[in-house]
Amino acid sequence: MRWFDILFNILFGLIALITGASAFRDFQNLAGLPPWGMVILILASIAYIFYQIKNAKNKNIFRYDKNKVKKVNDYLLDWLNQGSKTVIFTRNFSWANEPRIEKVLIEKARNDNLTVCLHAEATRGKTAETIKMLEQLGAEIYIHNIKSRFIIIDHDTHHSKVNVGRKDDKSNFVNERFYQSENPAAYHVFLELFELVKNNHTNPKQNSYRNK
Prior knowledge:
Structural class: alpha/beta
Mean pLDDT: 76
Shape: elongated
Radius of gyration: 24 Å
Largest sheet: 7 strands, mixed
Strand order of the largest sheet: 1-7-6-5-2-3-4
Number of strands: 7
Helix content: 40-55%
Strand content: 15-25%
CATH architecture of the largest domain: 2-Layer Sandwich
CATH topology of the largest domain: Endonuclease, Chain A
Low-confidence stretches: 202-207
CATH class of the largest domain: Alpha Beta
CATH superfamily of the largest domain: Endonuclease Chain A
């Protein structure tokens, strides 16, 4: 749901509230609806408005229990499938080994639609094999020491968006989305961080994972 839809729904709720208040003064015009019916209508309208306001604040935040790894992977898979050119900024790339996710990443790498900025500590074991494979297929790989996690979808377009991953105080997974069209200031913070890492390498191939 976009801000336009939310504002429309809030406006609809306000109209219902005003209509209900007017009807309360002259409830005979509503097919004899009793006064208590007017009270219910008004209270429902107020509750609807507050629900929309609360929903507007949390509509781009998704929380998952730390033990529900499959649900987290399902979320990431859905996010990766929402656009073409993708930038992954991560310090733990183990989730890329999930077969469905790996398949999507391989396709993006082959189409030159994948860039991975990987934390130096994550370049070991199975992750190392995955990174080498993706780079050989066409992905751009950058190694850095910044402990941030986010995924930009449709990079270099006017409808670009970013998903930021973190953990709460109980180590549960929290994902928050920022859309370029809705929150350009927040979106560009992550974009600048990516550009900082990318531009720090004067020659990507010489600084890529393959040559480390």
